[in-house]
């Protein structure tokens, strides 16, 4: 930055160090003043104080907060900023990776313990972090009153005044008539303990620990496409674990989730929650001591996926599901918590489901008689599901049988002749049948092949991210220090696992490619990401916003005719993908459409956009590919 401004790198480093020094001095003075204010609050129990929470750019900015602090002080109430009084040592909900989220939650802890300190939370319409943190706020505050003010460009000043006055009336009544109680954190009966292979379930009521292969345990997989969840459950049963999968989301299950949520959460969280509640509503335990183990994937942000399991866990507790425990899979280690043996079987299931999803779409587009072709497909798929539990040799024979049967389906057109669209975006909605099916059906009705970016792509990206972090560690620490910290072991394991994954995928592709129903696709993920992180998004933003633009660009340069970006409504990740890829695509004359899904059928204006996109794809001629 200093060099770009006409200064030397040394001057830039000096300015940076000086700025950090002064900022730290300010922070120390600011927190010291906060401690003084807390002492003042405690020594004046009859005086009312309100802590102002949110993000500094909305809670503390006059134009953004519509003068909320002044509205309190004009009524004789002192206002305290959350970042001045938060308790740095306070325990908060796990996996809170948002910086201001951590400070807000720790400030809530502080407010909860001081009787005359109340809380006002300044939020914004469609704020992603707040869609989950406001749940945590409710659970942490218990019966103590608090105020949430959601602001947007249409918020009326009079409405804010009315809500503040009502809040202060409630606080006055609460302080006069309600005796504060001791807040107790939620405690779940069952806990998960990872092992080198599989995991144990601990019953905290009895102290007993038992392996997940124990007949008392039922492992339930969340929906993420009908084929993948069914096959993953079959692979799990082969490991000696009782396992089933949740139903595919629908309007009823989604409404079940909305009934117990706020509606502000992203649609993937509601779809999984709804399927979970629908399963629990219909499931009849085979035994009284059954423990239902629900697998929930997680990340370290910035996406809200990492908050799902925290939200679900507390919600299940509130709803009385004592025998349900969540098994959290972490994206930062490519979801290998079950151990290498089990993970390798799950990988085969994921690869197979991705390829058979492609084949099913291919049959719908290319076959002379799609219904007859789909009947053959269903028979082949049942063969695959049955064979997954019998080992590799049986599976190879099964794939050979499927190849021959699928090759015999008459085609009206070849894959090379048909127009193809790559569907990228947020990992869940692009793979979930309920979310993506309307787009898929429309494209197929126009004779366009829809290639859904696979679950395998996301796992490969997780591996790439680990490799990127290991390279940064090596540059930062040097070889000797990194090696002493386990770098060599981690690197060797990652490369061996990556080699195995690609070997499995190549084996499956070789077996199924002769069917003629699989589209061509680039297989240089590292090359696509290397270019994509230079042209679109920094690799530091670890999410679909890194991988999707890179894959979309590579697809357009390898024979595809358009890109559809699909994401949940209000999803930051989806909007970043759109923001960086769409201008690039339009500059190069590539057809592109962006869609946001909220669990409802698309309205007519969105259908029109899909129709215009389909028309552009059909008339697109790749005269000159971008280089």
Description of the structure:
The protein is an alpha/beta fold and 627 residues long. The chain folds into 3 domains: 16-177, Rossmann fold, CATH 3.40.50; 190-333, 3-Layer(aba) Sandwich (Rossmann fold); 342-619, no CATH class. The protein is built from 22 helices and 15 strands. The chain has helices spanning 9-42, 56-59, 62-65, 68-73, 82-85, 99-113, 128-141, 157-177, 226-238, 251-260, 267-282, 305-318, 340-366, 370-388, 392-407, 433-445, 455-484, 487-512, 525-535, 544-556, 572-587, 604-619, and strands at residues 49-53, 78-81, 117-124, 147-151, 190-194, 199-203, 209-211, 217-221, 243-245, 291-298, 324-330, 419-425, 448-452, 562-568, 592-597. The strands form 4 sheets. The protein has a 4-stranded parallel sheet, with helices on both faces. A 4-stranded parallel sheet has the order 9-8-10-11. It has a 4-stranded parallel sheet with strand order 13-12-14-15, sandwiched between helices. The longest helix has 34 residues, at 9-42.
